[in-house]
TrEMBL record, chains A, B:
SMART domains: HTH_MARR. Keywords: DNA-binding, Transcription, Transcription regulation. Pfam families: MarR. InterPro entries: HTH_MarR-typ, Tscrpt_reg_MarR-type_CS, WH-like_DNA-bd_sf, WH_DNA-bd_sf. Residues 7-142 form the HTH marR-type domain. This is Transcriptional regulator, MarR family. GO terms for molecular function: DNA binding; DNA-binding transcription factor activity.
Amino acid sequence: MKTTPPFLPLVRELVRTYQAFERVSAGHVRSMGLTPAQFDVVATLGNTQGMNPKQLGEKTLITKGTLTGVVDRLAEKGLVQRLPDPRDGRGQIVRLTAQGQALFETVFPAHVAHIGRALAGFDSARLGPTQQALHLLRQALEQAGGAEAEA
Amino acid sequence: MKTTPPFLPLVRELVRTYQAFERVSAGHVRSMGLTPAQFDVVATLGNTQGMNPKQLGEKTLITKGTLTGVVDRLAEKGLVQRLPDPRDGRGQIVRLTAQGQALFETVFPAHVAHIGRALAGFDSARLGPTQQALHLLRQALEQAGGAEAEA
DNA sequence: TATTGTTATACTCTATAACTATA
DNA sequence: TATAGTTATAGAGTATAACAATA
């Protein structure tokens, strides 16, 4: 008879909590006419001067082949534009258009407010400690990921 | 000039920590020949006598139309089978086949061990408090989700 | 009438690899 | 040769709605 490893309940709770957040978040994102990946890109480009697809992929965890499609669809909607990278003839800069910037300025605060309402019942004194607890957990996981890549 | 709401860093940390977990987990799941959704179904059916698609969808958060396809593909691989529900002529019971059960018994412990290695660097004294912190956060989010559905 | 599960549609994301054009 | 990004391919999940069988 095996014993359940002691870390499993924590992992389950992490997954469930994230899923609870996703339910709150994704529904609202879709109601704005964006997919989660598209929202991620718009949110990442917001308040920047744009960046190349490589950086964008690293920040959003979207691989380059997929990112081309995501950016294509955002460009079709008139939310982002591709500009040549003056420093590298192979490269480009993806940035929000004026319309994309306007969307970001409207939609992002609305989304933040939506999440804020969902967290209204959460004791604000616990915000910091919870964040710190997650941070330590993440550090362990990322360290493992790095070690794994080397193995 | 706006102030960043105090809960945003926590939310960001939740998302990043989950993504770090996913990187550790999803790579291993795929190496076993299952997609995340398929693994989720197999793990949910493991150690049960099977359940109907409705319950399965509720536990895995997969909607019914999608679940039909996921179960189809698992059935093609010989890992699950559909049995008529003796209590309800409309319903069915999805359960692991012997092969599916064998896979579960091999693959699930391997996956747990993989995650365990990734968490080797995490202070075990923090397991409980971190889990509890997440639980409280999840409660707030789920309470909000319920309230939202009523609105 | 309401519910269970399937089917159909259309889209999006995913992984992978071959390809181009620059560097 | 190596890198940035696109294209091609095949598969899988998503939302949504219409549908058949049963309750």
